[in-house]
Amino acid sequence: MLRLFRHERGMALFAVLTVIFILSLLGALILYLSGKEMGLSALRVIGAQSMYIAEGGAFSGRGALMALMGADPIGQSTVDPSLDGAIMLDWYADGVPDQQNAFRIFDFLVLDGLRFTFAATSATEMLSFHVNWGLPEPHRKLQAAAGLPPSNPLGEGNYSATVNVRRRLAPHPDDVSQPHRYVQRVGADEFQFFYTYEIVSDGRVSPQARRRIALRGDYSIHIQRQNFAQYALFSHVHRGPGGESLWFANMSSYDGPVHTNTEFRFAYFPKFGTPDSQIPCDASRARATPLTSAWNTAWFFNRGSPVRRTANENVVSGQRRDAPVLPDCDSNSSNDHGNLPANFTRGVATIPIPTNPYSQKGVSIGRDPADTTAVSNLQIRGSIPELPNNTDPVPSGIYVPVQDINGNGTSDVDEPLAGGIFVQGNLNSMTLGMTDSGASPGACSQGPGSPGGCAVYTLVQGGQTVTVIVDRVSQRTTVTNTSWPVVSQTRAFAGVPKG
Hints:
The protein is α+β, with helices and mostly antiparallel strands and 499 residues long. It folds into 3 domains: 50-226, no CATH class; 233-346, no CATH class; 357-494, no CATH class. Helix content is 17%, strand content 27%. The protein has 4 helices and 27 strands.
């Protein structure tokens, strides 16, 4: 017969209480650790969010810098027309780096009609900007740095970003034997400025998460005298010769920049951009080209009841009736209403046109563009070997001025071009196109300035046809002129047309 003594009953109760205490302690510890883990997970989440927000802020800063530099959106940033070659030559300072002013150009960049006023000198090493996405302008999102950078909301947090642009010594793009400079002169009234950008972005998520991202890279900007040849279509006043309205319609298609100093008119869905050339074609790969107008309005056909709107497209009762769009992959215009919108921007700066035609006429025979005096018959005759030097009126014809090195009165092979293309009288037609790479005559090179081949100009006046093939990479120009003797109607000259 077993007996349980009193002190043994006490020990059993103590053991039970000890086990309960230990289990309670373990449970509390598990709950504590679980709470800690949940808290750490939340911190990791907001930490990751703040890092992504900082990254987004850095890339928004780079996008804002690209917009200011005219790189994205393409064509939105312009150079104030008061900037000329003499001013840039002063910044170049005879190529002496320590005397060059690499930042004064920033005061001449115009974006959304606004300019900065840094008034930089040759001693300026860096310019600083703050990213401010709250600015009212559509593309200008940088402001001169002063005080703390503004906070920009993004996602569940915010970021502040600073863009620092430093000048950079760099080699001449075409002549490595020249010294490294902040500003390189690459042609007449043509300069290249070199910089390094650094973007520091701080992303924050309440209550205490904060991360920092930095981006760094090199870039340059190329400034030269504006050339209207860059446009697929340019109009000062977008109307016909008699003042009649001109409409872009379904069959209109432009692959290249299009601009007017007034306003455009759109009927249905004209196309502006580079279509996809791959097989099979994919409309999403179509590339936008700039479509800009100085006025903030546009006309839309509106099914025969034209309306003027301050908008990029005409939408009625939720249906898109008229709009400039990107090209697609077929010729069926019935489905163009679904095409992606073109890169259309209204209200850009007016592009000044030459006020004196003599500067353009003079350039065609090789004169200084700054010379606005009347072009004389003797000057024209002096630039075209086949024309005798007398005071007779220049006969109608198509001429490619050449320097008559040997004085034999003939445009000989390998002689340097003297100007551009000069036309006396009216043309029957002029056609612009491109050759395939390696096309004959002339061996067109691949490379910058000659994408996929050479520029081809075909001009017809009466019974004369002149074809000019320009290879800017090899700096050669091939001319076929039906007015020359049959045995030598095709000749290759040194250089490319000026202008």
